[in-house]
Design brief:
The complex is a heterodimer of chains A (260) and B (301). With 260 residues, chain A is α/β, with parallel strands linked by helices. Chain A has 11 helices and 10 strands. Chain A has a single domain (8-250), classed as P-loop containing nucleotide triphosphate hydrolases (Rossmann fold, 3-Layer(aba) Sandwich). In chain B, helix 6 packs across helix 8 (161-186). The chains are: A alpha/beta (260), B mainly alpha (301).
Chain lengths: 260, 301
């Protein structure tokens, strides 16, 4: 376990000794500890199957969905144990964006944005709805593209627009942290660029935790980086320092392309 | 040098038109055409026969009047006229019984289907799934018998529409359960996870995300289940019995289109009515099937 050279005071998330097993004894993530700094983009990188997504999904307790997955350890959000929070509260504070754009196929663009409210039975009046929809879509730079077709189905949009809609859906719930699980791996280069620019802007207001297996993406947009290998957090630090001067041999080999 | 000779040999064989491969290919194509014709010919023959024999009876009174009695039919046949009366009692009976069966089978079937989808590995769910498959294979006459012993004897104390509906309900149940399960399996997991990532409770995800996303599949499954039971005769013989008049009381004996066909078959004076009634029933089933095919083709998931 390498040093965590991030100031703990600024941490919004603290991951303490988190391990995740898909079956008994078959660990995908082992004893990961890290503090995630507020209003920064933190990238989790590593080769396929190293447990990056598994770690990410442990943070907002998505593993609760699958009874055979065992999660150990603890994640603190602003010092509070997430295991003791209600799932609604937890996922309100920690939004998530997935690998493939997954707008709800039966809902209109507008309904997709406020789905977090609708699905949790939170009633909004018309002006509140309109405000949230416009603001969230403007935050993801989608408003001008879709403002005339808010009642159309979200699935009519292009892949990049769909992914930005999914980010807007997460933002609409006013989270503190946004988890992104390889959000651009299914997108073309132009859409990828737009999403990356968006993430750089969003870090002003949100804390962003991004899983990527594209190390140049991590270099482009992240402030801090984690390198995971075989379920272990090998190295964690400022992205620039890690890319210039990796401390661990495995990080060095990964960054220089000896394996991927 | 050797490679070049192999290349030339290969080229020559590829260009040869009438060698064994081409002949085999033609023979198999021929077989497939013949077999597919054998497959589609029954439906063409059935429909053409039903139309040619039954179209004369298909007039206004066929849909608006109830079954004639034997004497009226005999008179008409002897005078060379069209048999008076119609099958209104069968139409209303079929609608009534299928409707009641659907009201019972759709909610239960969908709920059990969701249960099976959500608990694919749990032991109890696996047992339920196996029993569902067995239920699908139970002969319909046996279901009629069960309905006779449960509903006719103890609930309505006589032959009734309710007893007929109950038999149809048990027939529909496994069809709807399995189609619901298959539909839900086709919905990408990522959509369900998107709902969970927003903190939505389980029942909201089922009601507001999963069911709307799979709606076309659910409707298709229900329509196919209806089209399967709408033509069932055997269980209705033991339960609904049949009736000469329009009956909308679920505790009284009721007629149905397939029951009428059986009755007309047993009455030499009414034989002509078989064809028109069969044509109507066939059109009903065909229509339901075509609608569900259309819905499947429009499905955009």
């Amino acid at each position: 376990m390498s040093e965590i050279n991030v100031n703990i005071k600024d941490a919004v998330l603290e991951i303490n000794n988190v391990s995740v097993a898909y079956n008994k004894g078959n660990y995908a993530v082992t004893n990961v500890s890290a503090a995630i700094k507020r209003n920064k983009v933190t990238a989790i990188m590593g080769p396929s199957g190293c447990g990056k997504s598994t770690l990410l999904r442990a943070i907002n307790r998505m593993h609760d969905l699958y009874p055979n997955i065992i999660t150990e350890g603890q994640v603190l959000l602003n010092g509070k144990d997430t295991n003791k929070m209600s799932t609604i509260m937890l996922r309100r504070k920690i939004g998530m964006v997935f690998q493939r754009p997954n707008p709800f196929p039966t809902m209109s663009i507008a309904d997709n944005v406020i789905a977090g409210y609708n699905l949790n039975g939170i009633s909004l009046n018309k002006t509140e709805k309109e405000e949230i929809i416009e603001k969230s879509l403007q935050d993801v730079a989608l408003w001008n593209e879709v403002k005339d077709s808010l009642n159309q189905k979200g699935t009519f949009l292009s892949g990049g627009q769909q992914q930005r809609l999914c980010i807007a859906r997460a933002l609409a719930f006013q989270p503190e942290v946004i988890l992104l699980d390889e959000p651009t791996s299914a997108l073309d280069p132009i859409s990828t660029k737009k999403v990356e620019e968006l993430l750089m802007e969003l870090k002003e207001k949100y804390t962003i935790l991004l899983v990527t297996h594209n190390m140049s993406q991590a270099a482009r947009i992240s402030d801090n980086s984690m390198f995971m290998y075989l379920g272990e957090l090998v190295e964690y630090g400022k992205t620039k320092e890690m890319f210039i001067n990796p401390k661990d041999k495995r990080t060095d080999e990964y960054l220089t392309g000896k394996f991927s | 040098m050797k490679m070049i000779s192999i290349l030339k040999k290969t080229d020559a064989q590829v260009e040869r038109k009438w060698d064994a491969r081409f002949i085999k290919d033609k023979i198999f194509t021929g077989f497939i055409i013949i077999f597919s014709l054998i497959t589609i010919s029954p439906i063409v023959l059935i429909i053409s026969k039903l139309i040619s024999k039954g179209y004369k009876q298909l007039n206004w009174s066929f849909f608006t009047e109830t079954t004639p009695n034997t004497y009226q039919a005999m008179l008409a046949v002897n005078l060379g006229e069209i048999i008076p009366g119609g099958v209104l009692n069968g139409i209303t009976g079929t609608i009534l019984m299928v409707l009641i069966a659907s009201i019972m089978a759709i909610p239960i079937g969908i709920m059990v289907g969701i249960f099976l989808y959500e608990n694919q590995t749990k032991k109890y769910a696996v047992i339920v799934k196996d029993i569902t498959d067995i239920l699908q294979g139970v002969p319909s006459i046996v279901l009629g018998l069960i309905s006779y012993f449960w509903v006719v004897k103890y609930i309505t104390n006589g032959f009734s529409a309710l007893a007929g509906s109950f038999a149809l309900f048990i027939m529909m149940l496994p069809l709807i359960i399995r189609s619901t399960e298959e539909t839900f399996k086709m919905i990408p997991v990522s959509i369900k996870e998107a709902g969970f990532a927003l903190g939505a409770p389980y029942h909201k995800i089922i009601l507001k995300v999963m069911i709307p996303s799979g709606l076309s599949g659910l409707i298709t499954g229900i329509l196919l289940a209806i089209s399967r039971v709408v033509g069932e005769t055997a269980p209705l013989m033991l339960t609904a019995l049949g009736s000469m008049v329009v009956n909308l009381n679920i505790e009284k004996p009721t007629s149905a289109l397939p029951l009428l066909i059986w009755e007309f078959y047993n009455d030499p004076n009414m034989v002509d009515l078989i064809w028109a009634t069969s044509l109507l029933l066939m059109m009903l089933v065909l229509g339901l099937n075509l609608i569900s095919k259309y819905i499947i083709s429009k499905r955009n998931l």
